[in-house]
């Protein structure tokens, strides 16, 4: 499994959390939904929270997530 999967899981987690959430809650939701996948993911098991932030940056660049300057610090949101 590669960190590319996190580009699918971040929006999925945000959707489950109502479209907007604190970063820590996004991480908790990803763990809740994908802990089994992450547990067997070799190195990604140790880096997935860092890689989740990389995925969010990529998703912002693609217009999937709101820009950080439009949200309170530490909050991510799906672009509507």
Based on the model shown, name its key terms.
about 80 residues; mainly alpha; two-stranded antiparallel ribbon; 3 helices; 2 strands
How would you portray this structure in words?
The protein has 80 residues and is mainly α. The chain has one domain (3-77). It has helices at 6-16, 23-39, 44-61, and strands spanning 20-22, 75-77. The protein has a two-stranded antiparallel ribbon with strand order 1-2. The radius of gyration is 12 Å and the shape is globular. It starts with 5 loop residues before the first helix and ends with a strand. The model has no long low-confidence stretch (mean pLDDT 95).
Task: Give a nutshell description of this structure.
This protein is mostly helical and 80 residues long. It is 57% helix and 8% strand. The protein contains three helices and two strands, in the order αβααβ.
The 3D shape can be described as globular
Task: Find the count of extended strands (DSSP E, 2+ residues).
Answer: 2
Mean pLDDT: 95
Largest sheet: 2 strands, antiparallel
